[in-house]
Protein 1
Amino acid sequence: MKFLLINTCGVEGSFAFADTTQSKIVSLVTMPGRSASERLVAELRLALTTAEWKVADVEAIAVVTGPGSFTGVRVGLSVAKGLSEATGAPLIAISRLELLASVASQSAKPHPHSVCTLLDAGRGEFYCGQYRDGEPLAESLLSPDGALAAARDADLVVLCEDAVERTFAGTLVTTRIPEPDAGDALPIAVRRFQKGAIADSATVDANYLRRTDAEIFSSPPRPAAG
């Protein structure tokens, strides 16, 4: 089965083509410096040609929906939704926090029953994901104290950013992993597809876990004259 996987949530954006009949990533393209908004569609076209795939060959599309860069999340999700609607390929939505947990759990020994993942949310806050035996328990936007409390009881605490590591150095035992790329999402995508956990391309939205800056700083509506 042929998958297109997209992850444009972090500092680098990426996408991958995977063929499960060959059990491998056919192509992985990374776009540095938050350039996915300008380059994603053109790079996809080029990679399809290089891999000798047509858009119609893609049988499922998986996209990492955040949290992360507002622009990056929106670009990746928009492209994935558009392709899903145009081709009829089912759409699979994956949380970036869950992706961190999945990648770290695969290599951890002993295998952790409970995993907590932490990402920098800015403004002194953190995105926190909590999982048990591979199933999500909660995803939240927390203060440092809240994130510390959530992480303390986990078998494995996972991070991939300098800011998070600096904040919790000396207070938590953490595992630092590289930022996952699009290809790392394949195991989750396959499991979701097999379970029939397909997103509705018309209604699926970005996993921001909080309002955008525009919403936060916009002026409140004026009361109606009366």
Protein 2
Amino acid sequence: MTQPTVIRRETPYPLQTALSIAASGVPVLPLRRGKVPFGNCRTCAGNTCGGRPNMRTPGPCTCPAPCHGWAAATTDPGVINSSTWARAWRDAAGVAYHPGGAGLTVVDLDNAEAIAWARTTLPATRTVPTTRGEHWLYQGTMQSANDVRPGVDIKSSMQYARWLGPGTGAMAPLPNAVRALIVKAPVPIPGAVTVPALAGGGECPHRTPTYLDRGIAMAEQSIAEASSTVHATVYRAFLAVLSRHGRCGCLTDTHMARLFAAAQAKGESPRHCTDAWTNARTALGM
């Protein structure tokens, strides 16, 4: 006689837990053994449904099943408790949630060394014990990234985290120290403009802090405040700086490194920064 499969659950009652979490505004999804989401259904296999697992927002397609990993996370009790999700909940070993969808960032500390680093580097916030370490939860979202330093992952947008309980402590705002973890070292800037000697001597007026530095600061601010279309915002900021300051030779690598750092803090890769800079120069005929 075939013995029934025994499911080892991290969460004793995953469906009931998911409904409770969703009621607080946190998007949830079921996890199978191995701490991974359920695979896509036949209709969504290979992303043939036109799903959007690489977009920054949930809602991959009209499929009623829990497909597309983190993008399937929802707060809708009708979806969570639907017949199409019922099989997943029967086989679920645990519950996951989409931190970015709840306006949160999880700093996943995987060992004692990582925890010790966080305690001396990051502001105190709500903590959740994990199997080997801790999750530190902050209010605010950012790009997710793995291995930002030894034993440390960032889980926020386009990522899921295991639900291991509400945690303890007051939740702090997402600090710049966490955002800075995903910023790569500034890359060499292609086509950096050198400072030529001015005809007749004198100093370029753009060098004064009241003009050039204000222009750079305004570009940094526009990038930092971008809530969507980050690629386009970065390009427009680069274009604006180059159109104003790119022809007289006052820009230096230091100025452009500031803009690259601002873009990377919003999730842009060094390659995207380089492409945006090059495209802006090309558009201006430089």
